[in-house]
């Protein structure tokens, strides 16, 4: 199982100025746990992704430019094995600004799931 962390934050002008420091903090904090993560902006439509680490790109097969500005619910990673109830739980957590652990099957850009299936 792969753990993906989604960090949703509200960005104003001040927080945009310190965003590089926040990204470095997340990189260091999650490095020892080998976590894949995205950071999203709650002030824009769909809580758009504004940063993803290299591990997330490697895991999904998408390049960073392919991922930027997509919804933080990662609906671009849904596939035939992605459970509708899990999709709803992820959306509810993001909309409700709550921490939640959700087991969900995401698919790579090539269509394979994390466990090798279609």
Approximate strand percentage: 5-15%
Structural class: alpha+beta
The percentage helix is 25-40%
Overall 3D geometry? Answer: globular
Number of helices: 4
How do the SSEs run, as a string of H and E?
EHEEHHH
Mean pLDDT: 79
Strand order of the largest sheet: 1-2-3
What is the number of strand segments? 3
Q: Terminal Cα separation, in Å?
A: 17 Å
Q: Stretches where pLDDT falls below 50 for ≥5 residues?
A: none
Radius of gyration: 14 Å
Biggest sheet layout: 3 strands, mixed
Question: Can you lay out the helices and strands and say which pair or pack?
Answer:
Layout: E1 4-9, H1 13-31, E2 36-41, E3 49-52, H2 54-60, H3 64-67, H4 84-95
Give a verbal description of the structure.
Helices cover 36% and strands 14% of the residues. The protein is α+β, with helices and mostly antiparallel strands and 118 residues long. Strand 1, helix 1 (13-31) and strand 2 form a beta-alpha-beta unit. It is globular. The mean pLDDT is 79.
Quick structural summary:
The protein has 4 helices and 3 strands, in the order βαββααα.
Salient structural properties:
single chain, alpha+beta, three-stranded mixed sheet, 3 strands, globular
């Amino acid at each position: 199982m792969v753990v993906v962390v989604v960090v949703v934050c509200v960005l104003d002008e001040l927080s945009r100025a310190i965003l590089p420091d926040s990204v470095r903090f997340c990189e260091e904090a999650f490095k020892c746990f080998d976590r894949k993560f995205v950071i999203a902006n709650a002030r824009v439509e769909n809580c758009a992704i504004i940063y993803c680490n290299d591990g997330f790109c490697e895991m999904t097969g998408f390049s960073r430019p392919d991922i930027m500005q997509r919804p933080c619910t990662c609906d671009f990673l849904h596939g035939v094995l992605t459970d509708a109830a899990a999709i709803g739980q992820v959306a509810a957590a993001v909309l409700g600004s709550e921490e939640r652990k959700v087991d969900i099957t995401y698919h790579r850009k090539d269509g394979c799931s994390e466990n090798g299936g279609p």
